[in-house]
């Protein structure tokens, strides 16, 4: 009972930390850099610039997500997780609080790291916001925004999530070109917005799948038994022997399959070379390897 309660509290604590990190990326880095971004946060920032910087970004994030949730409720049903609603509320509160704390008396937002470099600030914002989203996703949470839009679109048409994200981000960032000159964004701010989005996506991908990335090695050799034994004993890795047929020669053979972390691939290949330098080898990347020695199924 207590373990379950502790697990739930831990999830919500990590989601809170993640959303605060995400909010800091936008308010503490992206906003002072005077650049743009995608998603609901990017749209909120766009409205903030259009309004003459009189609207709280956190408030706009809450309004946009609330409208999207309301529309989606009528289209796809009211099956939204409590974690999504929680993350949206925490994100809105964190953004509003940080914007108030970081705003100086003259109305400008303070550059926390004093970088005086818009590109570096935008990249740093992408890293912080990417870390925040990855932490949130790992606990089953969601920041809403494009996730909700994708859910509504897929109700009627089968469009990949990646395409929806890329199209929406491109549209929102490109719309920054319509901002008045007083916003002081410029074409460089739009370019930095695209850079930030790339850094953000890369950070999320690396944190979400980096520790799960492995290689699958298939080995065709003369003596499969000696090869499997060498991999077991010398490389200290498991091996599986599969039945195969060479279709050109119509001869039956065996394939030794090894699944290992990417960092261990070179060691396995060295063992293979020592046993049979003429072995035929293929190496392919796989993600999400679960079982003994890898990720536990209970963490899915």
Task: Specify Rg, calculated over alpha carbons.
Answer: 25 Å
| DSSP summary: helix tally | 10
Strand order of the largest sheet: 2-3-1-4
How much β-strand is present in the residues? Answer: 5-15%
Strands, count: 4
Global outline: elongated
Low-confidence stretches: none
Q: Look at the structure and give the mean pLDDT.
A: 86
What number of structural domains do the residues give? 2
For this entry, what is the oligomeric state of its chains? single chain
Terminal CA distance reads 21 Å
Could you describe the largest sheet, including whether it forms a barrel? 4 strands, antiparallel
Structural class: alpha+beta
Classify the helix fraction into a percent range. Answer: 55-70%
H/E element sequence:
HHHHHHHHEHEEHE
Describe the structure in your own words.
The protein is an alpha+beta fold and 300 residues long. It has two domains: 2-210, no CATH class; 213-299, Alpha-Beta Plaits. It is 58% helix and 11% strand. It contains ten helices and four strands; from the N terminus they run H-H-H-H-H-H-H-H-E-H-E-E-H-E. It has helices at residues 2-30, 39-50, 57-76, 82-102, 118-138, 146-156, 161-174, 186-209, 224-233, 265-275; strands at residues 214-220, 240-246, 251-261, 280-286. It has a four-stranded antiparallel sheet, covered by helices on one side. A hairpin with a 4-residue loop joins strand 2 (240-246) and strand 3 (251-261). Helix 9 (224-233) crosses helix 10 (265-275). The longest helix has 29 residues, at 2-30. The protein starts with a helix and ends in a 14-residue tail after the last strand. The model has no long low-confidence stretch (mean pLDDT 86).
